[in-house]
Write a structure and sequence with these properties.
- About 75% of the residues lie in helices and about 0% in strands.
- It has one domain.
- Helix 1 crosses helix 2 and helix 1 packs antiparallel against helix 3.
- The longest helix is centred in the last third of the chain and has 31 residues.
- The chain is mostly helical and about 90 residues long.
- The protein is built from three helices and no strands.
């Protein structure tokens, strides 16, 4: 794993797409979205925290941007540390 930026780009592309699909699903099918989440989180009632207003496009885009930056930085750092530690062996 000699090029951390390439790995970070790839991982960010995948998770950015997942985030976008998740957000689009939440916008179009909010009841289905929360139904699935309630099945995933056993014994937690998510209905109490369900938003009463639809997701705004600006909020969605800001979330996508900040999530993607976070994923890229974490992946780049992980790959860089991996490279540094693997050279010591």
């Amino acid at each position: 794993m000699s090029k951390p930026a390439i790995l970070a780009n790839a991982v960010t592309s995948v998770w950015g797409t997942v985030y976008a699909l998740c957000g689009i699903t939440a916008m179009i099918f909010p009841d289905l979205y929360f139904g699935v989440l309630n099945n995933w989180f056993h014994s937690i009632n998510l209905e109490r925290i369900k938003s009463t207003t639809p997701l705004a496009l600006t909020s969605f885009l800001m979330g996508l941007a900040t999530f993607s930056i976070y994923i890229w930085v974490i992946t780049f750092a992980t790959a860089s540390i991996y490279n540094a530690w693997s050279k010591k062996r």
